Amino acid sequence: MSTQDTPSSSPSSSPFDTESPREEAPQFVLPLVVRIEKAAPPARTDALETAARAVLVMLSDERSLGEGEDEGEWARVMRDWQDARIRKVVRRARGAEWRKASALPGIAVTGKAAEVRVFPPVPLDGWPKELAKLQVSGTDLDDPADPGAPDPLAPVLWLSPDLDMSAGKAMAQAGHGAQLAWWELSEGERAAWREADFALSVRVADPAAWRELTVSGLPVVRDAGFTEIAPGSCTVVADHPALRAHPRQP
Predict the structure, then answer these.
(1) First CA to last CA across the chain, in angstroms?
(2) Which of 12, 41, 98, 204 lies in the 20 to 30 Å Cα band around 168?
(3) pTM for the whole thing?
């Protein structure tokens, strides 16, 4: 489930566009696996929020950072992934499949009930067999109850009210939104978010507010159009309180 971001430029000039020079670089994908047991699937919003937090945990992990002698074991592949067009794929697993995936190097992140494991980026054609066989399409979940209003003091990833996305697709989009917010924050703001365990909410925006959000100067995710929705569709706006104080010009 690949997307592109165009928060401050048109789709044709985005570094994540299919015509971008980034497309010429070796392409990598960030794998995320959500645990969906038949008897106890997670709630949709919980899964989306946990996936977004998992991306932030991976970006900030010491193994993903550093250069030279201080380079973490995942730092080089994380740079290669971010230097190309950003891709994320969400797969699902249960039972033995989940246990096998959990044995691979990665990071497990839990929500209220959701469990998501994020792995270092892999080449598009170089997936580990334990992950390659997991299902991608058809990953869908429901919210048994209204998730309620988001915390007004925490970041909110607003989903488009105009798009019908599967849970897997929406998880990838939420991860992109979280990543765009992370890129825009200062080191101090990143540290504060990390200390708060990357608290955030994912909610569907009110239709009346969506247009205002997309032109507010906050980071906007635009989809590359490979799955489910049309290319260039605005899917997520990353509304971080710190970015409200210094938003970019739309």
Answers:
(1) 26
(2) 12
(3) 0.89
